[in-house]
Amino acid sequence: MGRKLDLSKLTDEEAKHVWEVVQRDFDLRKKEEERLEELKCKIDQESSKREFLTSQSHLNETHCVHCLQPFKFLLNSKRQCLDCHFYTCKNCSRYNKKEQGWVCDPCRLSRIVKIGSLEWYYEHVRSRFKRFGSAKVLQSLYGRLQPGQGLNSAFLDSLIPHV
């Protein structure tokens, strides 16, 4: 993976097709980043709300920290989240079979963001390689493409991760 990528043997048509695929890859990555950013905003909002509500005198002992519905013995019993340890109702949490416990919706969203962002992976790859994946293909093809195809070097530099 450390070697230079040689795509010079591709025909112009093949190179254009690869270029389009890589462009779609970048578009999908951007959409996924936007989706994860929205989830992060929701998590931050819920976290602020939760922080305020739990500071109120023992509110979480009697009410769900998310929907504020009162706990009732059989109708709406309280469940403690495995991650944040706050009490939630059945509607605001999901049972995790693997961990054999309840996880509230905001904590579940937080888990999705951690898994979806793969930040730990990309940071590791960036630290080992200057260019990788689609950025490496883009850099290799960039020299072959004609300037009239709507791409400039500033755009390419913005797509290629630098160390």
UniProtKB/TrEMBL annotation:
Q: Does the keyword Protein biosynthesis apply?
A: no
**From its record, what is one biological process in GO terms?**
intracellular protein transport
Q: What are the entry keywords?
A: Coiled coil
Statement: the UniProt record of this protein carries the keyword ATP-binding: no
Q: Which domain of life is it from?
A: Eukaryota
Matches recorded under InterPro entries: FYVE_2, Intracell_Transport_Effector, Melanophilin_FYVE-rel_dom, Rab_BD, Znf_FYVE_PHD, Znf_RING/FYVE/PHD
Q: What name is this protein filed under?
A: Melanophilin
Native organism: Zosterops lateralis melanops
